[in-house]
Structure formats: structure tokens, C-alpha cells
Amino acid sequence: MHYISTRGHAEPQTFCDILLGGLAPDGGLYLPDHYPQVTASDLAAWRQLSYADLAFEVLSRFITDIPAEDLRDIVGSTYTAQTYKHCRPACNAADITPLTTLEPGLHLLELSNGPTLAFKDMAMQLLGNLFEYVLEKRGETINILGATSGDTGSAAEYAMRGKKGVRVFMLSPHGKMSAFQRAQMYSLQDANICNIAVEGMFDDAQDIVKAVSNDAAFKARYKIGAVNSINWARVAAQIVYYFKGYFEATTSNTERVAFSVPSGNFGNICAGHIARMMGLPIERLVLATNENDVLDEFFKTGLYRPRATAETHITSSPSMDISKASNFERFVFDLVGRDPEIVRSLWRNVDAGGAFDLGGTVHMANLAKYGMVSGRSNHANRLATIQDVWKKYATMIDTHTADGMKVALEYRQPGIPMVVLETAQAVKFAETIVEALGCEPGRPAEMEGIEKLPQKVKVMAADVEAIKGIIARSCN
Ligand SMILES: *Cc1c(COP(=O)(O)O)cnc(C)c1O
Prior knowledge:
Layout (H helix, E strand, L loop, with lengths): L2 E3 L9 H5 L10 E3 L7 H7 L4 H10 L7 H11 L20 E5 L2 E5 L9 H19 L3 E6 L3 H10 L5 E8 L5 H8 L6 E7 L2 H13 L1 H6 L2 E2 L6 H18 L7 E6 L4 H11 L4 E8 L4 H8 L1 E2 L23 H8 L4 H12 L4 E2 L4 H5 L5 E5 L2 H15 L5 H10 L9 E5 L7 H8 L20 E4 L2 H9 L4
Parallel strand pairs: 4-14, 5-6, 5-8, 6-7, 7-15, 9-10, 9-14, 10-13
Antiparallel strand pairs: 1-2, 3-4, 11-12
Helix pairs in contact: 3-4, 3-10, 4-5, 5-6, 5-10, 10-11, 16-17, 16-18
Bound molecules: pyridoxal-5'-phosphate.
């Protein structure tokens, strides 16, 4: 299996070659040169498998440059009941992504049972183990630099803590995260985790990451890497749970299902798109946005108009507060018939701060073939949905999952189970739960009182040279 760039001007690469990198050198995103196809007998055999065995079967179609027995070990030690233990009462943690049935034909797929209680753990934990394996083989090290406003940074730190050859420098906006989020990250005492609270907003932290990454000499000297959502391995890992969710929601492989996906950077739903392209019987992929509706606008009209950062709404489903969807180019590459020339011309406008409009073109006419539909949700919808699900099913859902649920209910079809992806646990967004339900969500026993644990964090000015200094001194 080789990986090609959506912009067509980069050499094809193998999985391990793109694992540690970000964008392709031509500015595009890597995708497999073809989608492996699953047969009816594959599906029949895979239905019985444990999560780890299923992950091996799916991932080994995409990862052909790691020996099978090593890959089996890596996924086996990643997808354990111990790591994904924070599931609902009465669930079976060994399922890794248990399915909660709310009523016949309406399900939640629990993806947020890992160490940081958000679905990003599903892929990031695998990434941690893959990084350690590949770095050790090559005798290399990496300094991961990132900026976070919450979920991504904590998922990265819990995945990379203690990994040989890996050091993490995570910038967060000082005083802007919730006490729970701060405690999750800053209470990590591992020597290879460096938390830096930057005086400023998230965008100031993000700008520093960009400035450091644009310094090619510094980047090469200190082996700066990233684990952001365009990383192909993260997308690949997420394909697995569409298969698992399909098997859990059906009893035979002749059935079709729909998935509803709370979306921001288009990483999660991109994995669903690929599962569908591989032949998994997915009737529809329902894309749900919050008030930041750039993707809903595209799927309704064909206009893709990334917003200015200042235009981005700060919402109660903050992990979907994006102005442009960094993985979207992968889907558009397929939509335009994998023609890199078209992608280059569309993104010439996007990269210059503009937009493109596929409305009325043959490409939009093809959209139905991909099963994508979309909708949006707002704060009032979110509160009402959290209340309804609580009243009807005695089940508490988080704000992002509520956006997915709200839009899912607009697209139910007779005979097609609707599976709503649960992307975080309610406790992570407790303030809005209190607003909706008037009570504090419970948290896993081991997370009681984490706000009181000693914290390890450096508070620093938003100054690029100072941050480079910390990296150069290995966090000292
Ligand atoms: C990251 C995140 C999302 C959005 O996922 P994308 O892959 O960026 O579309 C949704 N919900 C939660 C809780 C998240 O952390």
C-alpha cells in the first residue's frame, strides 16, 4: 500500500514514512492510492472478532510495512479493556466501543471510554504505540509540538506519556480551560511531558506552533513533529470503529446502517467515508456541525467558505469550533474523481484565504453516491436534546454528542439503524450539563478530586524565542 498526496506532486510513500510527518511536501494530504475492498466473506469472518483482532484486520490492509506479528502486538496492547474502561454502568469494557441502544433503531456508539474521556483517545493511543515502535526501529527521537484548547492536547499527552524517544511540548491558553481540563493535563508528572500555559488565547498558542514549524532549521535540528488531526494514522485508526459499530448494530451483513458524526475538522467522518468506500454497508453518513457550520453549508450548497478566525463562534460544543476543516481536502479529492489538478485549483483559493463553490457542478450531482447528508445545531438545540435524551432514555450525553443526536433525528429512515457516535463524556462539559439538567454529571471514581493534585506547568509569555528555548533545553 502506498500513500499519495491529494495535490499530486509528492512521491508515493509507505505508511511508516508518513507516520511521523504532517502535510505532504506539496501542501496536500496523504491518502491510500486505493481503498482496499472488503468481501462478504471478510465481513462474515470479522463480525465475530474482538476489537483488537478487528483492528488488526482493518489496519493491516493499510499498513503493509510493519511485520504482521508486530502490528498484532501493537494493536493488542492498544485496545484493552483496561485502557477503555470508563464505560457506562453495566457495559462490557472489553467491547472497547460498546453500543448503547436507546430504542429500537437508535443507538449510541461509545467512543469516549479512554483515559481522557473523548473519542480522540481511540486513535491517539494507537499513535503513541506506533511512534514508539517506529522510532525505536530507526533509532530516532521526536519532539511533538502542539497547541490545544482541550481534548486534543490531553489525548496526545495520555498517549505519549512514558513513550521512549518521544517528548511532548503542549501549549495551552493560560487560564482559558476548565479546571477539570487543566487538571487532566497539568497533573501528569511524566518527564517526557512538558505543559506550557501561554499568556494569551488559543490562537496565540497556535501561531507559536506555526512559527516554530516554519523555522526549517530549528525544526530539523530538534526533530519537531505534530500529532494533529491531518495525521493519516489517526484517520486509519478511526476506520475500525465504523466496522465494530456496524457489527454491533446489526445481526446480518445484508443490513445497512447510518452513522451520525459530530464534526469539526472532518477527521472522524472522513474515516466513515473510507469505511464506506471499502464496502461497509453504510447507507448514510450524517454530518452534524454546531454554530460553526462551514461544512453544513458545503453539503447543502456546494460552497466551501472557511471563516476568518474572528468569525469563529465560541460554543458549548467547543471541540467543533473550527473555522476550516483540515481533513476536508481528503473527501473532496474523492468527490472530484481523485483529480489532483482540480484539488490544486480549488485550494489555491482556500490557501489564499478564499472559498470555492461546487454548486451546480457534476461533482455536487455525484454527492448522493457518497451518502453524505448534513445539518447544524445550536446552543438551544443542544440543551433541548440533552434534556430529551435524559428524560426519554435516562442517558446523559455530552454537548457534542447532542449535536450529532439532534441532526441524526432529522435523518432517520425506516429499517435503517441510526448510530450516533458519542465523542465525549458529559463530565468534560459539565457547565452545560448543569445548565440543561440542573445537576452535575458524575465522573469516574479515579478522577474524583483531580483538581487538587499537584500540577506541572510552565506559564510563559506568547513569545516564539522563549518557547524555542524551552524546547532546546528539553523543558528545563
Ligand atoms: C475533536 C472532537 C470532535 C470533532 O472531530 P473531527 O474529527 O475534528 O471532526 C467532536 N467531538 C469531540 C468531543 C471532539 O473532541
